[in-house]
Amino acid sequence: MKRTKYRTVFLFLLLSLLLFPAVEASAAELNVAPSVKPGEVLLIRLEGIELQEVSANLRNSENEEVAKAEGFLLQEQSGNSQTPAGTPTEQEAVVMLAVSNWLTAGSYQLSVEGREAGNPFRLQRNITVNEGAFVREEIPLNSSMTELRKEPDPRKARETRELIRILRSFDPEIRYHTGVFRHPLPSHRVTSKFGTRRVYQYNDGSTSQSIHNGLDLSANIGTPIPSPAPGLVVFAGERILTGYTVILAHLPGVYTLFYHLDSIEVEEGQEVSTGDEVGRAGATGLVTGSHLHWEVRVNGVAVDPLFYVSTPLIGEE
User: How many angstroms separate the CA atoms of 137 and 200, rounded?
Assistant: First the structure.
């Protein structure tokens, strides 16, 4: 009986090794901050030899995945003219792991996985998510705005799917900007902060809740909106809820969004520089007044635009 038990355990271990190859520790150097706030980005830098397929995920104390992101190679160092042919290439990879504004404070486990010189590896760190500070606001809507938000509409559903597709797109070759963003309207008043917990009050007496994923800035209709950084226009058009909308790509998985514009001054596929006018402020879509809604998404997750006004994306200012 005991021999049968040992044979069963041996067969299970053998099958596990065949189906799930061993994940090795890596000699790669991992650099990451020990803590982060909800609505910020955990910048993970990894230096190693011939890095491939780098990714990262964050798990809570119950081992549930709460964040994940792909990485991309930042640079290669192939050595000088005296380096022997066939010498392994030193590389640096980065992963921009966005932490959602709904994530609760606590201790989490970060896992960075990939391949180094063809061998799989996994590196782990403990990360503290600090307490977020978000306000609450109530927004009364008139009959037309109530209908616009509540009524089912195939076009709204289609536009939502298309937006998700764009914001989750990850092109490792996109390289337009690595530093900080320039604030598009620095002298204008903030009318709604990032992460604000909103309660919509409909004219029929019902309510619904949502989280504000951007920054609302007061602006008169026609106010020019400059690009906060070099980028590529990946969307320029009208949407039901966000009105005239422009989306720029800056790095793999990094996008800035501009909602409720009165006019669009760029075209899809156009490259823009810092300060180029992308549109003019307006009151199109679901709004209660003229303003600019400025949003930043990293791998599909909304992050605080003001975070990147003072923090470089991956490089120097």
Answer: 9
